[in-house]
Design goal:
Layout (H helix, E strand, L loop, with lengths): L3 E14 L2 E7 L1 H6 L5 E4 L11 E4 L2 E3 L3 E7 L3 H7 L6 E8 L11 E6 L4 H13 L6 E6 L2 H13 L4 E5 L6 E2 L2 H7 L7 E5 L2 H14 L2 E5 L15 E3 L5 E3 L6 E3 L9
Parallel strand pairs: 8-9, 8-12, 9-10, 10-11, 12-13
Antiparallel strand pairs: 1-2, 1-7, 2-6, 3-4, 3-7, 5-6, 13-16, 14-15
Helix pairs in contact: 5-6
Bound molecules: flavin-adenine dinucleotide and FE2/S2 (inorganic) cluster.
Length: about 260
């Protein structure tokens, strides 16, 4: 699989909320070949602070030229990125990893929590384009409506019906996405595609396992190199040993992983 290390021009930088930022990068080489679920490693500062690139999912592509990352400001790297300006260049490595596996013969359910919603928009667009007549169900959650609203607008614009859940009840169901998912009739041929906090992904995996429904999860582990050189991203697997989330993932069949059920 091809990968590029490119200076990518920031064509747009938008604050969707005080701490959620969307950056549109002009990078045809990456945009043309990226697949939903893949990510890029971005150099967030000019010098050695931070030294390591930061991983971000590709949240959508357009016109074979642009791709977007959507991120929450949580620390030094994301704070530096949020203070970039349109017209600057970012050093980006990608597209990396193995993305979602799509089979149009069945139905689809996308489940996202918090900023884990980012890669699901690209997937929703691809499903809407190639699996026509079979629109995916979308279940999205976050702590508050203020956090969730900017993340779900793009899904609504695709004409998809979005089931929302918030911890504080300010938007949609008052509670967790798993409660919403339990109330939905998932077809036996459905695949769920999940990205979000680990407990949420575990809960969805267990529900799907009980219903014998396929489940793919995107593991957003800590990553240092993004390409198999450091072991920083390893996750335990059911057959024994570990897998690298950076190149064997970040998307895995949930059944392949060894989940620690507390
Ligand atoms: C494949 C992949 C895709 C990702 N996609 C996105 C995305 O689309 N949008 C987005 O906002 N974030 C995404 N992340 C997480 C993102 O990489 C981290 O939030 C970012 O690296 C934090 O950098 P920082 O320098 O701002 O924070 P740091 O200063 O490095 O850390 C700040 C805090 O965030 C925690 N943190 C850092 N990385 C992670 C992580 N991977 N998981 C959980 N906690 C973490 C640290 O433990 C610390 O408490 C993704 C991660 C991976 C591995
Ligand atoms: S992030 Fe270095 S091996 Fe995966």
């Amino acid at each position: 699989m091809s990968q590029f290390q490119k200076k990518s021009y920031i064509s747009r930088l938008e604050y969707l909320s005080p701490d959620i930022v969307r950056i549109t990068l002009d990078s045809p080489e990456i945009a043309r070949i990226a697949q939903p679920g893949q990510f890029v490693m971005v150099k967030t500062g000019n010098g050695k602070d931070p030294l390591l690139r930061r991983p971000f999912s590709i949240s959508q592509v357009s016109n074979d030229r642009y791709f977007q990352i959507l991120f929450k400001v949580v620390g030094r790297g994301t704070s530096l990125l949020a203070h970039c300006r349109e017209g600057e260049n970012l050093s980006v490595l990608g597209p990396l990893g193995s993305g979602f596996q799509v089979d149009c013969t069945g139905s689809h359910c996308l489940v996202g929590g918090g900023i884990g919603i980012a890669p699901l928009l690209f997937l929703a667009k691809q499903l809407s384009r190639i699996c026509t007549g079979n629109p995916p169900l979308v279940v999205l959650g976050a702590r508050t409506g203020e956090e969730l609203e900017p993340l779900i607008n793009d899904f609504k614009e695709l004409g998809l019906s979005v089931h929302a859940a918030t911890d504080d009840g300010s938007l949609g169901h008052h509670g967790f996405v798993i409660d919403v998912l339990k109330g939905l009739q998932l077809a036996a041929d459905a695949t769920t595609y999940v990205c979000g906090p680990h407990p949420m992904m575990l809960a969805v995996h267990l529900l799907c396992k009980a219903k014998n429904i396929a489940c793919q999860v995107s593991m957003e582990t800590h990553m240092a190199c993004g390409m198999g050189a450091c072991l920083g991203c390893i996750v335990p697997v059911e057959k024994g040993g570990y897998a690298h989330a950076c190149f064997e993932g970040p998307v895995f069949d949930a059944e392949e992983l060894l989940w620690e059920v507390k």
